[in-house]
Amino acid sequence: MNAAEPASEGPVDFETHYSAIQEEGYTVFTGVLSDAEITAYRGALQPWLDRDLRGRNVFEGTHSHRVYAMLAKDPIFAELVAHPIALTLAEHFLGESCLLSACLAIDLMPGETAQPWHTDDGHTSLKPPHDVVGISAFWALSDTTVENGATEVLPQSHRWVESDLPDALSDIDFDNSDRLEAAVDHGFHPDAKTVTLTAGSLMVARGDLWHRGGANRSDESRLVITPQYCAGWLRPLETMLLTMAPEQVVALPERVQALLGYSIHSPFMGYVDGMHPKRILGA
Fold first, then answer.
1. Which of 106, 111, 96 is nearest to 218 (CA)?
2. How many whole angstroms separate alpha carbon 224 and alpha carbon 38?
3. Beta-strand relationship, 26-29 and 202-206
């Protein structure tokens, strides 16, 4: 199965998608969310987009809205975090002790330039290629197209030893807020593939797959929510436990509580004062 081939109706053939992620580095499921679900998620997100908080550098995107700590914004997003398709893939590759490493919305607006090429597990400093330590889900809440900046991937790049890509993410990108020559694609790569998604579709990728957000040359924004999961022994990108008070966490499904860090990675990683962290929630 080609990694970008639409998922068939009926029960999900997870084995096929596992293979696609292992071989190509990513896979796609089409039409996962209903129109009503898309409307509900967009509605919960809109007040935060209305704040017009834009990226601080060329990596975040100075013409992009980024909303972090999604579960603290509205518990409805727990449905995406624990969605059975994304979570099944995360648990398959990372184990049931996996954690939620990040969960953010990215609203790529007109005029945004292409991101630097990057991997979502680059912070681990593991020498490539390596085993899967992260899984990223990309939920499309609008159609993503070539024109509006759909995610671009380098298929099979998780197998590469070489990581010196043109316009690859570097430390200076976190300080730089000015993309020079926006009309020029400094990161052009002949093997790049644009993964276009219809609203309600899902892309799941390995954390070590090289990818980037494309340039938005349209007159409309494109909106994606991306929960990212990591192995239970790896420190998450976002310190989830500090984004929510315990009384907020109690209201979430138990599986989501575990993904936030109210859990143990065997034999005892994650304990609090020698005990299971769930005791803080009164469980």
1. 111
2. 11
3. antiparallel
Residue 142's alpha-carbon distances to 69, 76, 158, 187, 199, in angstroms, are 21, 18, 27, 25, 4
| Spatial distance between the Cα atoms of 231 and 276, rounded to a whole number of angstroms | 18
Query: CA 270, CA 264: separation in Å to the nearest integer?
Result: 5
Of 200, 193, 228, the closest CA to residue 214 belongs to 193
**Backbone dihedral region of 58: left (phi > 0), alpha (psi from -120 to 50 degrees) or beta?**
alpha
Q: Which residues contact 77 (CB under 8 A, 6 or more apart)?
A: 41, 44, 70, 71, 103, 225
Contact 200, 159 (CB under 8 A): no
Closest CA to 255 of 28, 62, 93, 99: 99
- Find out whether 281 and 262 touch, Cβ atoms under 8 Å: yes
| Cα torsion 217, 223, 229, 230: sign | positive
What pLDDT digit, counting tens, does each position of 33-86 carry? Answer: 999 999 999 999 999 999 998 988 888 899 999 999 999 999 999 999 999 999
Contact 30, 198 (CB under 8 A): yes
Residue 20's alpha-carbon distances to 17, 203, 214, 247, in angstroms, are 5, 11, 22, 40
Distance CA 119, CA 126 (A): 11
Q: For the purposes of burial, counting CB atoms within 10 Å of the CB of 112, is it exposed (0-12), middle (13-18) or buried (19 or more)?
A: buried
Q: Is residue 47 within a helix (H) or strand (E), and if so which, with residue range?
A: helix 35-49
Would the pTM of this model clear 0.85, i.e. be above it? yes
Q: Record the tokens describing residue 68, joined without a space.
A: 């972090």
End-to-end CA distance of the chain: 44
DSSP state letter for 144 = B
